[in-house]
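Figure S7 source data.
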Amino acid sequence: MCGIVGYVGRRDCSDVLVESLRKLEYRGYDSAGIAVIENGEIVTKKSKGRLDNLQAKLDEEGKPNGHVGIGHTRWATHGEPSDINSHPHSGKRVTIVHNGIIENYKELKEFLMKEGYSFLSETDTEVAAKLFDFYYNGDPIGSIARALKDLRGSYAFGIMFREFPDRIYAVRKESPLVVGVGEGENFIASDVTPMIQYTRNYYLLETNEIAEIKEDSVKIFDVHKNPIEKELQFADWDVNAAEKGGYEHFMLKEVHEQPEVVKATLSPRIKDGMPDFAGDGVDVEKLSSYRKIFIVACGTAMHAGMVGKYVIEKMARVPVIVDIASEFRYRDPLITDEDLLIVVSQSGETADTLAALRLAREAGADTIGIVNVVGSSIAREVDSVIYTHAGPEISVASTKAYMVQVAVIYLFALEVAYRAGKISEEECKKYTADLLGMSDVIEETFALKDECAYTASRLLNAESLLYIGRGLDYALSMEGSLKLKEISYIHSESYAAGELKHGTISLISDGMPVIAVATQSNLAEKTISNIKEVKARGAMVILIAGADIEVPEDAYDELIRLPKTEELFYPMAAAVPMQLIAYYTSVLKGNDVDKPRNLAKSVTVE
Ligand code: M6R
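Tokens for the predicted 5-amino-5-deoxy-1-O-phosphono-D-mannitol complex:
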């Protein structure tokens, strides 16, 4: 939920840390802080709120001068956002930054208080800092290893010891952390984004591996102080991918990246015109043998799963259960070793999704992850991982990650359907080609930009609105509604169009906006009847319709026509105007589009 960074080298450490934190601000922006070793002492500067507040403080008070340091950007979990609760936190001889949650911090705090420690903040992290200090005996690795034995929960720590001013230490469990290896300089960070301008080489740390990072060396040890040899990884992300690239917001940039990332994600998995997941380690022979398929995820990723349910059931005739991860993990689900669990996650770190995965593994189910972040916790714990190639998604509101999740799920559905003998090779090849062609269709939908901006202008004063559709269009409506509410702060709900008259239609009053989706020819007529019902009660209807759907003029106030495509894949085309409507509404309202209030990009606590 937070971002951590660290640097050892010859550059101005304060500048490197602040610049690096800027790239991680999407992980939380409740506060920011750095600690740098200056003349042998650890100097800490921190501030509540955005990184700009910290920058202003550094400008005013002067930045610490040094070459070794750690930094943090926070999404508050324990203790309200405040200067005092901001990281770094310190014991007498130790200063740390932390991403994660120490579950037993209360009992540890009581113990440490009895040992004479006092606390400034309400955070679990300060307890960890003082625990490291308590066990410190002149041997950094030994004392870290000892403290880890007492800690329960999740963590990625950057740690500095006053008596060892030439180095930092790092260790992780369940929270992400990478160690960047440069020339005459080395780094730590929650992901590779901040370090790729300096180096593309990095190590992934496994649970409780302790990294010792100096200017000219990175050494990794286990908790018994045995050195560990690790394979160096290479980050092939484009340096510019983490920047806005000329767009006003990351969200808009990421919307426009969709054609490219859909191609990048699908192409490596299409061989001789057929789906091919062998390279992902998926046991394709087994695919048609599952009793049930569970798709479990949170938020937008769960909505991608909803599209999956409709498509896999329709094409492969296997029952698919889609579940919200936080519900699945506590409802004692009926999952067995005859079932397949698919977890979908952009970050690969979402706590509830990770817990659901572990539960399914315990039940003996096979597991597949559809994950964007390479080496993330979910990616490492599933039996096989299908990486989406969306690149870094910075905007909190997910767009391109959703699109590639849906794309992969479609391809997967085709694979299962073919293996189950439900579609012929010829049909499979046709659908596969059409799916790959969605990249061009998405590109065509960008021409709807002005219409979407106009629609947004009509939503500005709404207090509440509805998204409606049937079948795949309903699955997509869920995502459209979430996108709008999370960045525009206008209340909205998605409803299966046929369900309205069982209660919800009473909400319709004069001028209330209803965004309706009709792309499936077998359902369009019924959806249009539902639209007429809301229109008759005063609703202002914006209709997003497939190219060939016949729409009477009295069924809408505004019509957004999608470009022509294979009907099955319309959710991918229709997602774009949904994203753009949400985007322009947020812009027109003057909201912080990329960092909506109360939200963080990566939700690593339940
Ligand atoms: O990283 P994940 O895909 O596991 O995240 C799950 C949700 O938190 C995420 O999809 C969230 O709903 C979106 N950021 C909303 O746009």
